[in-house]
């Protein structure tokens, strides 16, 4: 992969990452993206010889445990979290999500805002925690739930994935555009808007950068594919793009996307994290790489600080 920086961070491996073969991570990626079902995933794991680990142990390590993901408590006195609804006339008519704001916004009573976009299974606890982390940094953060038209995230990823797959993707994209506009114009927003998204949310971040280039002031896709070629010609940036080295599916899309960004004279920077897995920022699974996640997140905060101040 060619990126705009030769920097590659070290990968902080856990014991699970050392013991689990790359093939198992690749199969989990297929499972997480709906290419194979849970039974097929576990059957494939059973075909591996993994010393000292059972299939259930390996599967359990890869499948998210959201109790691990909470870095900021929902009742931390420094933030206020509420559920909000917004109009989405070109999408599902109405959307909803999780709004988190600092309890102290200073003299202006407003702060820059950041849209946080989830993966392909709805607004899970990890994404809510990311929104809280941003609020702790002084941002008004909003995490829309693509599953709002179906009652919201159901409490488990398998059902959430199936629910999201059943929805019209174009309407989901319109809902996210509506959420971005709603947040940018929120009474507590300074008018500066950032977007950060993970996996499917990384794709949505690229879509918003392409469809709302004059409204999105800073976009940070984590391991997300680009928008359709007809849209990417509109991307101007600024963009901060994070890739994992062990992520063939997403990385295969990067050379053409980078050519377009260069042709657009877009403001962008891209980083690849050596030996990291797709989903390395998600601290609820064994794909999590602490040092890479910390470095990518600090770069993200610095980027938002530069462009949203």
CATH superfamily of the largest domain: Alpha/Beta hydrolase fold, catalytic domain
| Tally of domains | 2
Helical run tally: 12
Largest sheet: 8 strands, mixed
Stretches with pLDDT under 50, minimum 5 residues: 1-18
Please describe what this structure looks like.
By secondary structure, this protein is α/β, with parallel strands linked by helices. It folds into two domains: 17-62, no CATH class; 71-308, Alpha/Beta hydrolase fold, catalytic domain (Rossmann fold), CATH 3.40.50. It has twelve helices and eight strands. It has an eight-stranded mixed beta sheet with strand order 1-2-4-3-5-6-7-8, sandwiched between helices. Strand 1 and strand 2 (93-102) form a beta hairpin. The longest helix has 19 residues, at 290-308. The protein is globular. The relative contact order is 0.16.
Write a compact overview of the structure shown:
The chain is an alpha/beta fold and 309 residues long.
């Amino acid at each position: 992969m060619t990126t705009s920086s030769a920097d590659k961070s070290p990968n902080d491996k856990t014991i699970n990452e050392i013991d689990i073969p790359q093939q198992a991570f690749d199969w989990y990626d297929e499972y997480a993206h709906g290419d194979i079902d849970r039974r097929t995933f576990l059957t494939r794991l059973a075909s591996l010889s993994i010393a000292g680990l059972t299939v259930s142990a390996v599967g359990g390590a890869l499948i998210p445990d959201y109790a691990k993901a909470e870095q900021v408590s929902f009742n931390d006195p420094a933030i206020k979290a509420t559920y909000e609804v917004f109009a989405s006339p070109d999408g599902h008519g109405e959307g909803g999500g999780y709004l988190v704001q600092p309890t102290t916004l200073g003299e202006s009573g407003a702060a820059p805002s950041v849209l946080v976009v989830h993966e392909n299974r709805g607004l899970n606890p990890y994404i809510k925690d990311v929104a809280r982390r941003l609020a702790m940094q002084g941002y008004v953060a909003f995490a829309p739930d693509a599953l709002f038209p179906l009652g919201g995230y159901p409490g488990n990823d398998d059902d959430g994935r199936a629910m999201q797959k059943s929805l019209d993707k174009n309407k989901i994209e319109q809902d996210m555009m509506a959420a971005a506009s709603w947040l940018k114009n929120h009474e507590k927003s300074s008018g500066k808007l950032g977007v950060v998204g993970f996996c499917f949310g990384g794709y949505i971040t690229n879509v918003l950068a392409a469809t709302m280039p004059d409204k999105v002031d800073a976009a940070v896709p984590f391991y997300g594919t680009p928008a359709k070629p007809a849209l990417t010609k509109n991307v101007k940036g600024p963009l901060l793009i994070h890739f994992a080295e062990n992520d063939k599916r997403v990385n295969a899309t990067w050379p053409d996307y980078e050519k377009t960004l260069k042709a657009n004279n877009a403001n962008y920077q891209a980083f690849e994290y050596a030996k990291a897995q797709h989903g390395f920022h998600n601290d609820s699974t064994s794909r999590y790489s602490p040092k890479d996640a910390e470095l990518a997140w600090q770069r993200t905060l610095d980027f938002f600080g530069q462009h949203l101040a």
